[in-house]
Protein 1
Amino acid sequence: MSDALTIATGGMNAAAQRLDAVAGRVATLGTGMMPDGSSSALPPAATLDLSTTALDLISAEASFSLNAAVARTADGMMKRTLDILV
């Protein structure tokens, strides 16, 4: 596998992990539970900063999309190179 594909795959994995972490925080909204599993005495809305959470979701989505575009481009370049060599 080319270096570009390896890097893009790693970037997509990192973005998926970030998305999973943010989704876990959103899933606890309204339950009174903190993301680490402990109970919170605070009202549910005070336990999660929605603007930061939305920004994290958008950032993870953009990162995944950009890395996927790099993977598609690297794949296309590899195919063209093989077509030239064959």
Note: The two ends are 18 Å apart (CA to CA).
Protein 2
Amino acid sequence: MSNKPALAYNDAEKGTLDVRSPQLTDLAKDEKKAADIEVFAVQSLKKDAPVTPSNVAKPPPAPAKPAKKKTPLWVLWVIWYNSYRRFFTVVFIVNFIGIGFAIAGKWPYAAKYPGALVVGNLNVAVLVRNEIFGRCLYLFVNTFFAKWTPLWFRLGCTSTLQHLGGIHSGCAISGVAWIVLMVVHQFKQKYLFNDSILAFGVITTVMLFVTICAGLPWVRNTHHNVFERNHRFFGWTSLGMTWIYTIVTNAYDTADGKFDHIGRYVVQQQAFWYTVGMSTFIVLPWICTRHAKVDIELPSPKVAVLRFERGMQQGLLARISRSAVKEYHAFGIISEGTHAKYHYLICGVQGDFTKSLVNDPPRRIWTRELKFAGVSNTSTLYKRGIRICTGTGLGAALSTCIQSPYWYLIWIGSDQEKTFGPTISGLIHRHVGPERLLLWDSKVRGGRPPTMKILKEVYDYWQAEVVFITSNYVGNFEIQHGCKEAGIPAFGTLWDFVSDSLEIRC
């Protein structure tokens, strides 16, 4: 390795690097150890303000915006038909081929065990959304495949883990399709079934259907509280109805028209154990729910910085709520490492929940102690990477750059130090060296940056393998499509539906 010094901070900030293929210094030698954070007084923040290096030149104004060019159709298609939709397609097609064979009478198993196909699909749908299962998958991949495997394989691992929701959606819809087929079949032969079985079949189907409707992208992204309440409470009702429907269906003997199948027979059925598994996966995360102590710093009217005790590994997200069982909101976790005293959440003030954190800061808040892994958790798979974010998207990005010297941080925002306060600024200045940091203040520089120009230069300079993006819908769209067109591997925030007037929180 060459002993050339790292590029100066003000050079990196300009976004125009004169060196084409620099030999990078050995960053491992200069890796910083995370320091314990001093307890700060929420009402007195100036004493913790970071010292800005005096040799950092004031950034030049932003260059004129280039003319907007159209994204090629192949790029639009490749990004739209991502692994999420591919997973959904495979699961959906396989199940509906099975339903076709069942309707045609060509699949005896489906005729004999329709309940197992219903609950089996629902079981998988719940499993892939379970925090424990997700953390185990991320741990397995990060432990056994980090850095040494081919880049295409590691990119595939990240894509798979990020898009498991396609399996969740596909199995949930397929499960409802199977129960509709099962109930229709029972009504066709209603002389064989007790009225209570038919009634519970209809109620369970309706509950599951409402649960799915509440989880549709349009509802989830435009009416978050409606999604949270209905998807959760109708989901729990569906679980209860599934238990009743499974038991009465298997306990009933169509031969003599009585509920004379004993408990042992019911327990031996596949549907019973699928329902046990589904119930376990749903209940486990709620066992870890706690009413945790929280300190809230309000550096500006736009942002609340929440501080919780104990450190965290990078790439995790936290769900928090003012209620034990109502709406939970997910935010990226900022931490110096598992050894640290605290971890932080950046909550941009946009909706009713985040506004309440500013107007009426709580001393305790409900959270799940078991955090779930986000796409950033796979950053350990890569030798070098870039984390680009805008505004409050820093919350999901900063831990990766704090805990690894091989990740470059690009943060685009407006008046960041004043808006986000000394705690967040201090974490950046203490742990992310100027050789791997580019802060673009659109207020100082006079507008938005030439994002793709900067990103391409940093990608070459840093010799990165991948780019992770956390931005709003417009920013994510532009960067992800630009990266695809430039041949840069990139992963961004998932967006299923956005109306013209909607701007979704990172």
Note: The chain has three domains: 9-35+45-72+374-491, 80-129+164-287, 290-372.
